[in-house]
Structure formats: structure tokens, C-alpha cells
């Protein structure tokens, strides 16, 4: 009877299925219905209509699931999965794509997305699945991955990402030409700096005719950051945003993190999107990644975070349903078992599924045409509870050759073909003995073709990926699994063998092979007993340390150099003196660059005590002096520097009677130069005395420090540079000496012609020696102290702008910020619209804060608030308090920190405001407070402007009070401006004429006054000084008002009002209209 019922039910099922086909119901849906009717076990029953609806939706969305169509799916062992499928990550995907859509759409900086989670959670998979969407929307997508085993290789992931970019770019000739042109335009000759980091860039940009300017390690790091920013801007056109994805940031070197910070905070590149991923369980509060993220957030940049967790039970079921291509209802028992074992970790789920398949616990029945499994057998099976253990067991099931290949790659991390060729042999050499005493390694050979076959096998097993240029593990956990199969006692021997193979078969130039060989050998130092081999490894660490320093990677440099020092014994200063000295020198430099001054001092003391000669101490002394300067200890730096100079035969005294010494030295220098033409100076022999060249280098550094700490000493140092040049010959440092001497003549001795001559000579010397590292400083000094006494002030603007770029390209951030400040002030002095100047000052201040140049920030605050007051963004135009600064707070800071120059700057700008707004008594008080006769060096145009304003104030008070003292002061100002006007009338003639007009008023010569006011107005306009033209209009209006000529007064006041508005001084224009209705 039961048999008849079964036959009857079977016929009914077939009849129902035929009916479904007849009504053109899709086969996949028909099959689902058939399975529902056929289900005999309770576990396969649906509990609700919503579950049926869910499975129907999946089937209709994934049309053809029951037909096992694998088109568009990725092979995963015996299973297939759709490439764009996400499980519980839809919101994450939307978050990333929404961020991408915002790129370049607002005034915000670059977008930053951080993806975190445990190993195997699917962080990288999430980003790569969104990758296609972004590329389809026009993005360029670069990606790189940091390696736990190669953390001491500077910028490894960034270099890998850009190397792949270069490889792809050369496949598209048109795109290659466009990108190369953009790089040449943005980066210029500094592209050579990038090629030294990323050799494959040489395939897309020609740098054969350019040379890298030799700069210090700190400057090299700053230079690279700046040039790399330019490069990223060049390859990021607005129509094609650049996405950079860097994986496993927890293993990134410090320099890479700093480069990331530099890129995402670049205010001039809003089409850059950075995505980083890291294991949050390996990142604590003090971790470098946490520190960099905090730095980025402190710059008002929003970081969006995505936390990728494990799959839920339902998501795990959906994934398994996809993998084996049956409906979720039928996979619940299997997925529940797997979920209990894996907790839903994405990688573990997949590997667990593949394991139970390989062990026959999950199989496809050809008879019943369905997947079958037994949960009780799966749970009873002793399957490891971690991915690493699971993968280790899987690897052990592979052929022995494949196991050894995976062990080899696990020691290397990612590995390019070129590096593998250094390790492998051309022919089978089985049975040969290795240098290692390891029994395991003695019978292992890595013949090239056999190794390639083994690696292909590993790829087929899903353990490795072929990157095009080499191999990498499909996941870090696979690498750890392979590495764990090397017994702890044998690992050092594997690393030793690999390092020796690279040394034997490769030319160890400062590149990737060097870092790889040293990294391997450093893991095996306990096995190296031979003295010659130990010394050889110390030399290799020195080489790697120096290369890292040249790449501005200070942390890796410190590691290699310290390792090198640790390899040598206590007798090294006797037996291996040269290598020992260099290791200590460069290690001290690395500590200085990293800001670890205490450690630096310990090493420097060792050098000073152990060095055989004073010449051998020079590099250490230079590091010491630069470190003191970096800490703001200028007096100490000068004291040490003068001691070094004395040891080099160039004694310079720092007595209290510096004025008389300075007079003697200036006179002596002048006599030595007397009768010598520029051609004769240029024809001098080139300096070849090592000690004198060293002394010149110290003089250049010390003169910069002395400018801020002791200007009399700075003048003495510049004189000594000229004297040494004339005695021992000319060198590239002579250029600094001549421009410093020229500025001394212009500023302190009123020798404008002589000052200008030597300023120009310094530029000629600079070009002769191609000393680009001094270019920015020389332009800075020339345009500030010399040129405005001879050339039109406007003519220097472009040169100052280029000097800023040059300083940045040379990595001299402090000088670059000083030049940037100069450019802003220079623009204001040239009458550039105040709104433009305010924007420049605001951006300049931001860049200073980015670069931690706090010394100049306070000055920028004063300049900006002054401009804001004129524009109208302050409650009281006479007080420097508002958006940019609080006058009382800044003045208190300046007094407490003895910043006399800052106090002087505040008083000067308050004085100018007081004069502009007609508060002449206050202005007269402030001009006295801002006066400082102790400074030898004063910026040319600023000095003349101060004299000009002092003359205007004195004249205004003289007109009101008729006091002789004020008249005398006005005439002193007139004579001073008359002198400079003879040399540069385009800058100072309008000042002179306006002061003369004012003097004519208090002298009672109204005819001359009227004529001179008109002359001052005309010349100020013709020479491009609209702000001074506005003042001249206003003074003329007041003159006519006091004469009772209301019509003319109204005309000139109206012209003044319009000029102030044109300049951008709305607050002053409004003040004028309220005070003098016209």
C-alpha cells in the first residue's frame, strides 16, 4: 500500500512539474517548487512564506543557479562564486562609493576611508569588489600591500603600487604621452628624486640629463614629500580621480605613514581618495597608525571608518548557498555547523568548506545530482579551529616540492621574478651540500623550472597569486601557515641560506636586492661565526642604512645601522675603524632626523672620544650643530660651531666689543675686494683644501643661526667667507658669503651699489657651481635686503614665488616657510588686493602648521589680522584682535618668550592702522616702540615703508601742533627716502613727493603742496602702489578741506574712497565716508 502511495505521489509531482513548464515558469523556479513538494525530512521544510519569498528572490536574481552556470563567477576549488557578491557588506560598499562620489565635489581635502577588522574578515575583498565600480566611474586605482616580513623596506607598498602603475601605463601609448607630459610640467627636473625611489618610473619619464641636488637627510625627506605630492597631482587630473588603496597598514614603515599623511592633507589635490585597511586588534593607542590618524584628524580632515566584522549565521548560510549553488533553505544545517567552527570569519568559512570537501565530508552525488553532507561526521572530525592550522594541514598534503616552494616564498613575503632568479639554479643540483648545517636544507634544491611548476601548483590550490611581475600569498594567513611549517630551530638557517644565495648570485647595489639580502641575513646573525662574514654583514647593514637615509626613511636606517654596530665587538674602533666610524656617524644622523636627541648625544660622545683625528669628527660635529639648531638652541650651536672653526684654523671671537671687531673686519674685507672685478673673482681657482671647504660649510649654517641670535656675528661670518674665498679659492658656499656681504653693505652701510653688485655676483656663482641647494636662500636674501633698493619692487614677486618652490624641492621647510611669508608681505607692499592677500596668508598659515613651523605662524597671524582689520573683519580696527589672533594674548606670548622682533612687528602694524584711521597721537607712540636700531639687517622695502610712515605721522602732527621737533623728524624721513629714491625711483619717488607735499603744508607753501600732492598721486598710480595712492588722495582731500575748498576736498576724498575700495580696504573706505561726507 505504501509503495502504491509513493508511486502515486511521484506521478502527481511529475504532473505538477509538467504543468509549471507548460505555463512557462522558469526552470529554476520549477525546480524549487519540485524540491518543496519532494522534501521528506523536516529539516528541509520551510517554516514561513517569508522564507519561500527569500529563496525565490535569490533564485530570480541569480538566474540559472540550478543549472550550475559558472559564467561571471570565480573558481574557488570545486566551488564557484559571483565576483561582485557581497554578504552583509552592502552598506559598507555604499559608504565607500558615496565617499568616492564626493571626491573633488567640495572644498574639503582629500577623502580618507579606513577599513578595519580581524585577519580574514574580508577587508581587502570588500575594497576590491568596489574597485570595479570606481574604475567604471573613471577612477585610476592603485593598490599596494605591506608585508610583515619586510617592514624595514622603506615605502614598500607605495613603491609596489606605483611600479604596477608604470607597468600598466606603458601599455597605453596615448595615456603614457599625456601622463609623461603632466609629470614633466608639474615635477620638472626633480623627477629624478622619484626615480631613485621607484626605478620603474624611468620607463615613463626621462631623467637622464638631470641630477639630484645633494641635501641633508632631513631636507631629503621634506623634499621627497613635496616632490611626491607634485607627482601625485600630475597623475590625478580632475576628470580621473586617483584612488590609492594600501593594505595591512599595521605593518607600514613610519615614512610610508608620513607620506600618506602628506598626500591626504594636500590642499591642492582634491581628486585624491585614500583607502587604508588594517587589523584593528593589532593597533593600539600608541601605534604609529593611530598617531598618524590623529594627526590627520587634527587638521580638520574627516576620516570615515568601516569596521568589517565576521558574517552572521544568515550571511554565512547565504555565502555557502552561493558556493555550492543550492538554495539557502537546503544549506542551513551545513552552514550552521561551519559557523560554529569558524564564527563566520570569511576566509575561515571558505577554507573550512574546502577542507571538508577535500576530506570527503562534503561531496556531490552524481546519482542523486545533489550535494550531500553529514553534520555529525563534520563535527566529529578533528578539524583545526584556526585558519593557520587548517592551511598548514592543507599544505602538508601537497607534493614535497610544492611545500618547500611555499616555505621559501614564506621567508621572502611577496617576491618578484628577478629576486627568485637570484635564489634558484639553472639546473638540478640535487644532493649538493649547502653552507648550512641544516639537515633539512642539505637535500633541498630550487632549480628554476621546477620551482616555477611548484609555484603554479600553489596558485592552482588558491594559496598564491601571480602578480605579473612575481608571486604573493593570496592571504597573509597562508604565508604564516607556510612559515609555521619550518621548524623554529631551522628558520634562521633558511634565512641564512637565502641571504647567501642572493649575495652569491646577485650584484648587491643599493636597491631591493640589498634590503632583501640584509633582511634575511639579519634574521640569522646567531649562526654567523666567521669574523670576515660578520664584518661583511656589518658593511651590508651600513649600505642599507645609508640607502635608507638617502631615501629619508629614518626608522629603517636606524635599525640597519644599529644592527651593524651590534655586530662589531669592543675592538671595532681599532680593527674595523672606518666601518665603525661610519656606522656611528650615520646612526647619529638618523637619530637626529628622528628627533631622538638623547640617543644621538650618546653616539656623538663615542665618536668624539674614539675618532683618530679632528677631521674624522667633522661629520659628527655638523650633525650636533644642526640638532642644536633644530631644538632652537642657537647660542649653543654658535658656540660649538665657533670651536669647530677654530680647530679648522678660522678663529672668530665673540667678545662684547663686537662693533669695533665688525668695523675692522668689514674694512679688511673691503680692502681685499678693492680693485677686483667680478670676472676676476669668478676666475679665482676652485677651493680644494678639505678643511677650508668644511669651514665654509660650517660658516653657511652658522650665519643662518646668527641672523636670528646675533646679527653682529652673522656679519662677521659673512666677511670671513669672503676673505677665505679670496685666499683659498672659490666654492659653491662662496655664493652665500657674497649675498650676505651684499646685504650687509646695503642695510648697515648704505652702500646700495656695492650691495647690489655682490648680490648679483652670488647668483652668478650659484649658476657656475649649479648649487641649487643655495638658490632659495640667495633669492630670499637678495629680494628682501638688496633688490628693492635698485629694482622695481614688483619685479621680485615671481622670483620669490620660485624661491619658495625651490626651497620645498630642496626640502628646506624652514626656509620655504620664511620665503612664503616674504611673498605674502611683498604682495601686500605691492598693493595686491587685500582679499587676495588674506587668502594667501590664510593658506600660508595652514601650510606652516602642517609643517610644524610655528616660528613663522605668529608673524602670519599678525599680518593676516592687520589685513582683516582693513577689510572690515574686526570689532576695533585699531586692535589686532579678531579671527586670526588676539592682540593681548600674542603680545603676552612675545614678551614672555623675549620675541623682540614679534613685538616690533605688532607695534609697526598697529602704528600703520593708527595712521590710516587718523589716530596720529597713538601712531606716534607706537612708532617709537617699534623702533630698533640694534638690527644690522632690515628688509629694504619694509625699512623704507617704516621711514615713510614715520615721516607722514611727523608731518601730520606738525601740521596740527606746529612743533619744531616733529618738523625735524619729518625732514629726516624726507632725506632718507630721497637717498633711496635716487637708486630706485619706481619704488620710492611717490613716497618722497608725498612727504614733500606734507612738509609744504606745515611750511605754509600751499601752491607747492597742491602740486606735489598731484605728483604723488600720479607717480604712486603709475608705479603700481594703489594703497599709497589712496593715502595721497586722502591727504590731498584733508589739505583742501582745511583750505576751505569743499569742492576739491570732496573730489579727492571721493578718489581716496574709490582707491581704498579698489585695494580692498572696505573698512577704511567706510571710515572715510563717515568722517568726511563727500
From TrEMBL:
SUPFAM superfamilies in UniProt: P-loop containing nucleoside triphosphate hydrolases, TPR-like
Coiled coil segments of this chain: 159-186
Domain Orc1-like AAA ATPase residue range list: 85-270
UniProtKB keywords: Coiled coil
UniProt key word Coiled coil: yes
InterPro entries to which the protein is assigned, alphabetical: AAA_16 (IPR041664), Hybrid_Histidine_Kinase (IPR053159), P-loop_NTPase (IPR027417), TPR-like_helical_dom_sf (IPR011990)
Pfam families membership: AAA_16
Superkingdom classification of source: Eukaryota
Protein's name according to its UniProt entry: Orc1-like AAA ATPase domain-containing protein
Organism listed in the record: Ditylum brightwellii
Classification lineage: Eukaryota, Sar, Stramenopiles, Ochrophyta, Bacillariophyta
Amino acid at each position: 500500500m505504501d509503495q502504491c502511495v509513493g508511486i502515486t505521489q511521484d506521478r502527481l509531482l511529475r504532473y505538477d512539474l509538467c504543468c509549471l513548464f507548460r505555463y512557462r515558469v522558469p526552470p529554476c523556479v520549477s525546480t524549487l517548487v519540485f524540491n518543496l513538494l519532494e522534501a521528506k525530512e523536516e529539516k528541509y521544510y520551510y517554516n514561513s512564506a517569508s522564507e519561500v519569498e527569500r529563496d525565490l528572490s535569490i533564485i530570480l536574481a541569480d538566474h540559472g543557479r540550478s543549472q550550475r552556470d559558472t559564467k561571471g563567477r570565480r573558481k574557488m576549488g570545486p566551488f564557484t562564486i559571483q565576483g561582485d557578491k557581497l554578504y552583509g557588506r552592502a552598506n559598507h560598499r555604499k559608504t565607500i562609493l558615496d565617499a568616492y562620489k564626493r571626491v573633488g565635489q567640495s572644498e574639503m581635502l582629500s577623502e580618507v576611508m579606513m577599513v578595519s577588522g580581524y585577519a580574514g574578515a574580508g577587508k581587502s575583498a570588500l575594497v576590491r569588489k568596489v574597485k570595479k565600480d570606481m574604475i567604471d566611474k573613471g577612477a585610476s586605482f592603485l593598490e599596494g600591500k605591506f608585508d610583515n616580513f619586510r617592514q624595514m623596506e622603506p615605502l614598500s607598498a607605495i613603491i609596489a603600487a606605483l611600479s604596477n602603475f608604470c607597468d600598466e601605463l606603458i601599455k597605453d601609448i596615448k595615456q603614457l604621452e599625456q601622463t609623461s607630459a603632466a609629470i614633466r610640467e608639474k615635477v620638472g627636473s626633480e623627477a629624478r628624486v622619484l626615480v631613485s625611489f621607484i626605478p620603474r618610473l624611468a620607463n615613463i619619464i626621462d631623467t637622464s640629463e638631470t641630477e639630484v641636488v645633494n641635501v641633508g637627510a632631513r631636507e631629503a625627506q621634506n623634499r621627497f614629500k613635496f616632490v611626491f605630492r607634485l607627482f601625485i597631482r600630475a597623475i590625478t587630473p580632475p576628470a580621473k580621480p586617483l584612488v590609492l588603496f594600501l593594505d595591512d597598514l599595521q605593518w607600514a614603515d613610519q615614512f610610508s605613514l608620513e607620506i600618506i599623511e602628506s598626500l591626504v592633507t594636500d590642499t591642492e589635490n582634491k581628486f585624491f581618495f585614500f583607502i587604508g585597511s588594517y587589523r584593528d586588534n593589532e593597533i593600539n593607542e600608541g601605534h604609529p597608525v593611530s598617531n598618524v590618524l590623529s594627526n590627520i584628524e587634527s587638521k580638520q580632515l574627516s576620516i570615515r571608518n568601516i569596521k568589517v566584522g565576521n558574517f552572521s549565521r544568515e550571511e554565512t548560510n547565504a555565502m555557502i548557498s552561493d558556493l555550492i549553488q543550492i538554495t539557502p533553505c537546503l544549506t542551513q544545517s551545513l552552514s550552521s555547523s561551519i559557523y560554529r567552527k569558524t564564527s563566520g570569519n570569511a576566509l575561515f568559512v571558505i577554507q573550512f568548506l574546502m577542507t571538508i570537501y577535500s576530506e570527503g565530508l562534503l561531496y556531490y552525488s552524481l546519482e542523486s545530482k545533489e550535494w550531500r553532507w553529514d553534520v555529525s561526521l563534520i563535527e566529529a572530525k578533528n578539524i583545526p579551529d584556526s585558519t593557520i592550522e587548517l592551511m598548514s594541514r592543507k599544505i602538508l598534503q601537497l607534493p614535497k616540492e610544492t611545500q618547500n616552494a611555499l616555505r621559501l616564498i614564506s621567508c621572502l613575503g611577496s617576491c618578484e621574478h628577478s629576486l627568485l632568479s637570484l635564489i634558484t639554479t639553472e639546473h638540478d643540483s640535487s644532493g649538493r651540500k649547502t653552507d648550512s648545517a641544516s639537515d633539512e636544507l642539505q637535500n633541498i634544491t630550487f632549480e628554476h623550472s621546477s620551482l616555477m611548476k611548484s609555484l603554479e601548483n600553489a596558485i592552482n590550490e588558491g594559496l598564491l597569486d601571480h602578480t605579473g611581475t612575481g608571486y604573493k600569498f593570496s592571504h597573509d594567513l597562508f604565508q604564516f601557515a607556510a612559515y609555521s611549517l619550518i621548524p623554529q630551530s631551522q628558520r634562521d638557517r633558511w634565512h641564512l641560506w637565502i641571504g647567501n644565495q642572493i649575495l652569491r648570485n646577485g650584484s648587491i647595489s643599493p636597491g631591493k636586492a640589498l634590503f632583501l639580502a640584509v633582511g634575511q641575513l639579519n634574521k640569522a646573525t646567531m649562526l654567523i661565526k666567521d669574523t670576515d662574514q660578520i664584518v661583511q654583514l656589518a658593511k651590508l647593514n651600513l649600505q642599507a642604512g645609508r640607502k635608507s637615509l638617502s631615501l629619508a626613511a629614518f626608522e629603517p636606517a636606524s635599525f640597519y645601522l644599529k644592527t651593524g654596530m651590534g655586530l662589531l665587538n669592543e675592538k671595532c674602533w681599532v680593527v674595523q675603524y672606518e666601518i665603525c666610524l661610519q656606522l656611528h656617524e650615520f646612526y647619529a644622523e638618523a637619530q637626529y632626523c628622528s628627533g631622538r636627541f638623547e640617543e644621538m648625544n650618546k653616539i656623538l660622545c663615542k665618536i668624539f672620544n674614539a675618532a683618530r683625528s679632528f677631521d674624522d669628527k667633522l661629520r659628527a660635529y655638523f650633525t650636533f650643530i644642526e640638532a642644536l639648531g633644530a631644538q632652537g638652541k642657537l647660542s649653543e650651536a654658535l658656540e660649538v660651531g665657533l670651536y669647530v672653526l677654530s680647530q679648522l684654523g678660522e678663529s672668530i671671537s665673540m667678545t662684547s666689543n663686537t662693533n669695533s671687531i665688525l668695523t675692522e673686519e668689514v674694512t679688511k674685507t673691503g680692502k681685499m675686494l678693492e680693485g677686483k672685478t667680478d670676472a676676476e673673482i669668478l676666475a679665482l681657482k676652485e677651493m680644494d683644501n678639505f678643511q677650508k671647504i668644511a669651514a665654509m660649510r660650517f660658516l653657511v649654517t652658522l650665519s643662518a643661526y646668527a641672523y636670528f641670535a646675533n646679527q653682529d656675528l652673522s656679519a662677521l661670518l659673512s666677511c670671513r667667507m669672503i676673505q677665505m674665498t679670496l685666499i683659498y679659492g672659490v666654492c659653491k658656499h662662496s655664493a652665500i658669503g657674497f649675498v650676505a656681504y651684499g646685504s650687509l653693505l646695503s642695510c648697515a652701510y648704505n652702500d646700495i651699489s656695492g650691495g647690489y653688485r655682490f648680490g648679483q655676483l652670488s647668483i652668478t656663482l650659484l649658476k657656475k657651481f649649479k648649487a641649487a641647494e643655495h638658490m632659495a636662500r640667495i633669492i630670499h636674501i637678495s629680494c628682501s635686503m638688496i633688490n628693492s633698493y635698485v629694482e622695481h619692487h614688483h619685479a621680485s614677486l615671481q622670483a620669490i614665488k620660485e624661491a619658495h618652490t625651490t626651497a620645498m624641492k630642496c626640502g628646506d621647510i624652514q626656509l620655504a616657510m620664511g620665503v612664503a611669508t616674504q611673498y605674502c608681505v611683498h604682495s601686500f607692499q605691492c598693493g595686491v588686493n587685500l582679499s587676495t592677500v588674506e587668502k594667501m596668508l590664510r593658506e600660508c598659515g595652514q601650510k606652516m602648521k602642517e609643517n610644524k613651523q610655528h616660528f613663522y605662524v605668529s608673524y602670519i597671524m599678525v599680518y593676516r589680522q592687520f589685513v582683516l582689520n582693513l577689510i572690515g573683519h574686526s570689532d576695533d580696527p585699531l586692535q589686532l584682535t579678531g579671527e586670526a589672533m588676539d592682540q593681548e594674548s600674542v603680545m603676552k606670548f612675545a614678551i614672555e618668550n623675549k620675541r623682540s622682533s614679534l613685538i616690533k612687528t605688532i607695534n609697526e602694524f598697529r602704528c600703520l592702522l593708527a595712521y590710516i584711521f587718523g589716530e596720529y597721537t597713538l601712531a606716534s607712540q607706537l612708532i617709537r616702540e617699534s623702533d630698533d636700531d640694534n638690527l644690522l639687517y632690515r628688509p629694504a622695502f619694509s625699512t623704507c615703508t617704516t621711514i615713510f610712515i614715520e615721516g607722514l605721522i611727523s608731518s601730520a602732527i606738525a601740521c596740527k601742533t606746529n612743533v619744531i621737533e616733529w618738523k625735524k623728524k619729518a625732514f629726516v624721513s624726507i632725506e632718507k627716502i630721497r637717498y633711496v629714491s635716487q637708486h630706485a625711483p619706481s619704488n620710492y619717488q611717490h613716497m618722497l613727493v608725498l612727504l614733500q607735499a606734507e612738509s609744504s603744508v606745515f611750511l605754509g607753501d600751499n601752491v607747492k603742496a597742491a602740486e606735489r600732492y598731484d605728483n604723488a598721486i600720479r607717480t604712486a598710480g603709475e608705479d603700481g602702489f594703489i594703497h599709497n595712492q589712496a593715502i595721497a588722495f586722502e591727504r590731498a582731500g584733508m589739505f583742501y578741506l582745511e583750505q576751505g575748498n569743499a569742492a576739491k576736498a570732496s573730489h579727492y576724498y571721493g578718489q581716496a574712497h574709490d582707491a581704498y575700495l579698489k585695494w580692498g580696504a572696505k573698512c577704511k573706505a567706510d571710515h572715510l565716508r563717515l568722517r568726511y561726507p563727500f
